[in-house]
């Protein structure tokens, strides 16, 4: 079946002929840019500074860590530029790991990302949204935890509904909130430059006094970097900052939900997740089951944990896969020499990314071992208990069980759509 921008007639098992408009599933250039910018610049720029300063111990190393995070993110982006133009398939890191290392490692990535990384990231961002959205109603004190979590859950429900209803609607939401995010970042940067020009440099005096010498603490500071201003700078317009931060975090959450649904869809299509996650709503042109699944998990993740715990748990596993993805680039330089590479970066950048990823994974564990790292590792490899019977051996009883789902009574689907 060939894909086109025109409405195509598709016949499914029930013999019912229905129209499916592929144009409705497309993301345009501006929406694509907004999606990338909106997910790259998430809630971390508003939430992480406190934690980065806490773990680094002083202003000087804090600024150095932020600079290093920017350099590291740029190096990673260059590596992903080569991978993305070389392997033009959807699913994020999933197809890169599949091509370089095979099915097993790709499965462990999809298992960990779909079950932990994506929903926990979604939860982190909506918790950030809830903190800023509820703050004006509790002047002079911290909003109650219950209020924050309930508001976070409500945001998750709204965002999932938007993404289930329409790709275009989700794109419009992303465009608006990304624009709002860029506006407030420009305001913050400009205000900071003005304050420095006015001589407000007291925080830079003895900037390295009290800095942390712990490699683990520095690693945790990197975690938060790779993830009260208004009253002092914009008074009496201090309400502008929390308002635009709310816009920013909501847009980031929308982008996180959008991408998570597509990864779950691709994994289900490839047989690495339950088949129902690969189903697409024929009426709405969206991967509704995958989006709903991600939303339900995100709500569960906001119940027990605070933001910083989620960030550390999320980053430990995520950086392991970032390192493996950079390693995949190195491996394919030797095993996939004939693949077309419109963008080709110096291999030393990928080597540097692998080394930094190893540091960010191992340093906090060596410096301060905690059970959460062990739990994360056990969870990642527990996916093997499902991989061998359901994916590798494909036992008949498992396939028979999945065929019992009354899918056509729940949602109109396309089973073999390759997008």
UniProtKB/TrEMBL annotation:
Transmembrane segment boundaries: 20-47, 53-81, 150-170, 176-196, 239-265, 286-304, 316-335, 347-366, 372-393
Protein name, UniProt field: Solute carrier family 7 member 9
Gene from which the chain derives: SLC7A9
Molecular function as annotated in GO: L-amino acid transmembrane transporter activity
Membrane-topology descriptor: Multi-pass membrane protein
Leader peptide range in chain numbering: none
Subcellular localization, as worded in the UniProt entry: Membrane
Any Gene Ontology CC annotation: membrane
Keywords associated with the record: Membrane, Transmembrane, Transmembrane helix
Chief place of localization: membrane
Biological classification of the source: Eukaryota, Metazoa, Chordata, Craniata, Vertebrata
């Amino acid at each position: 079946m060939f894909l086109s921008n025109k409405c195509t007639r598709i016949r499914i098992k029930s013999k019912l002929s229905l129209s499916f408009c592929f144009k409705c599933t497309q993301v345009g250039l501006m929406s694509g840019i907004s999606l990338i910018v909106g997910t790259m610049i998430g809630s971390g720029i508003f939430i992480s500074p406190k934690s980065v300063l806490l773990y680094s111990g002083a202003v000087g190393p804090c600024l150095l860590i932020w600079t290093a995070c920017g350099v590291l993110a740029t190096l990673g982006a260059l590596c992903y530029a080569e991978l993305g133009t070389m392997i033009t398939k959807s699913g994020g890191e999933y197809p890169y790991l599949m091509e370089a290392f095979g099915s097993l490692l790709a499965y462990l990535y999809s298992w960990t990302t779909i079950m932990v990384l994506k929903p926990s990231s979604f939860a982190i961002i909506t918790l950030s949204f809830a903190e800023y959205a509820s703050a004006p109603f509790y002047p002079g004190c911290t909003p109650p935890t219950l209020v924050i979590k309930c508001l976070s859950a409500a945001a998750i429900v709204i965002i999932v509904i938007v993404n289930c209803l329409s790709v275009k609607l989700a794109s419009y939401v992303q465009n608006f909130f990304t624009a709002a995010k860029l506006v407030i970042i420009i305001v913050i940067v400009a205000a900071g430059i003005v304050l420095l020009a006015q001589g407000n440099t007291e925080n830079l005096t003895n900037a390295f006094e009290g800095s942390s010498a712990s490699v683990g603490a520095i690693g945790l500071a990197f975690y938060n970097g790779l993830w009260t201003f208004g009253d002092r700078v914009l008074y009496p317009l201090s309400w502008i900052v929390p308002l635009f931060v709310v816009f920013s975090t909501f847009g980031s959450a929308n982008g996180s939900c959008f991408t998570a649904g597509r990864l779950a869809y691709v994994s289900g299509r490839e047989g690495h997740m339950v088949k129902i996650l690969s189903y697409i709503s024929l009426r709405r042109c969206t991967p509704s089951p995958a989006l709903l699944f991600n939303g339900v998990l995100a709500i569960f993740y906001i119940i027990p944990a605070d933001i910083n715990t989620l960030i550390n748990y999320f980053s430990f596993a995520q950086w392991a896969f970032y390192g493996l993805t950079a390693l995949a680039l190195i491996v394919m330089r030797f095993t996939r020499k004939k693949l077309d590479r419109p963008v080709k970066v110096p291999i030393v950048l990928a080597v540097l990314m692998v080394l930094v990823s190893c540091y960010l994974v191992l340093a906090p564990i060596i410096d301060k071992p905690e059970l959460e790292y062990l739990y994360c590792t056990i969870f990642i490899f527990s996916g093997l208990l499902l991989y061998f019977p359901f994916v590798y051996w494909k036992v008949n009883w498992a396939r028979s069980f999945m065929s019992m789902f009354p899918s056509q009574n729940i949602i109109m689907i396309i089973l073999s759509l390759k997008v």
